Amino acid sequence: MTSRINSAVSLSIMSLKARQGSGSLISLMAMDLIEIGAKVGIYFIPFLFALCFHEFAHGYVARLRGDNTALLMGRLTLNPIPHIDVIGTLILPLAAIIFASPIFFGWAKPVPVNERNLKNPRVDMFWISLAGPLSNLFLAVVGAFLMGLIVRYFMYLTSARALLSILDIFISTNLFLGIFNIIPLHPLDGGKVLARFLPAQWNYKLEQHEQVTSMILMILVFSGLLRFLIGPVTWTHDFLVNFALGGL
């Protein structure tokens, strides 16, 4: 009898420990999901908005220069859905967040531009292409301005420090997108900006080899060789933040 009771007690204890273990596992999973959700809010949402604003800027300037293609195709909007590329906008960035990858990279669908609608395609494409990186610089300036406002007038809010952290990431994200896209290689905006100053034959050859330069860019990204962008991003970030805070 005693051995049966002890066995029953042992089984009860084992069952209790198993339940506690499964409860701990569920708790850990819940904490992981909360952490991932927080990272999505802090990193992915600003990244998504920066991408959409970047593409919107291309379409908006194209319209100013005479091409309504983006408008007609529903791309002249800040709604992220028309701009989403499943791999570049969702899978790669979210995978980087979930698996804590040191490489955070992505892209949106390029806004279509019909050069035949432009009065001076060579000059107009220069401004249309430059609009994307400049839009990210503009957002970085806005982020720094908002950071300055919070530090001066709203630090009493309980959410102030969290907002400052989000804005800090928002500024860095936009600066990285802007500086990365100005690299003078096709298919980046910088390649089209450079085309304004190159002989037409040279630019034609570069466009013909766009797949090669795309592969070079991917190698630069996934090999970590783009670390050289950290310098200009950090310097510009510190300049904007210090200027916005007025030396505080």
Q: Summary?
A:
With 248 residues, the protein is an all-alpha fold.
Structure description:
- The chain is mostly helical and 248 residues long.
- The protein has 9 helices and no strands.
- The N and C termini lie far apart (77 Å).
Q: Descriptors for this entry?
A:
248 residues, mainly alpha, 73% helix, disordered N terminus
| SS-derived structural category | mainly alpha
The total of beta strands comes to: 0
Low-confidence spans: pLDDT under 50, at least 5 residues?
1-21
Q: Please tell me what the overall shape is.
A: globular
Largest sheet, if any?
none
Roughly what fraction of the amino acids lie in strands? Answer: under 5%
In whole angstroms, the N-to-C terminal distance is 77 Å
Strand and helix order: HHHHHHHHH
Rg of Cα set: 25 Å
Number of domains: 1
The average pLDDT value, as a whole number, equals 84
- Percentage of helical residues? over 70%
Number of H- or I-type helical stretches: 9
